[in-house]
Amino acid sequence: GVPEVPVRPVAERRVSRQIQVGPVAVGGGAPVSVQSMTTTRTSDIGATLQQIAELTASGCQIVRVACPTQDDADALATIARKSQIPVIADIHFQPKYVFAAIEAGCAAVRVNPGNIKQFDDKVKEIARAAKDHGTPIRIGVNAGSLDRRLLQKYGKATPEALVESALWEASLFEEHDFRDIKISVKHNDPVVMIEAYQQLAAQCDYPLHLGVTEAGPAFQGTIKSAVAFGALLSRGIGDTIRVSLSAPPAEEVKVGIQILESLNLRQRRLEIVSCPSCGRAQVDVYKLADEVTAGLEGMEVPLRVAVMGCVVNGPGEAREADLGVASGNGKGQIFVKGEVIKTVPESKIVETLIEEAMKIAEQMEQDGAAS
Ligand code: SF4
Question: I need a labelling partner for 110 at 20 to 30 A (CA). Which of 93, 103, 264, 337 fits?
Answer without folding.
Answer: 264
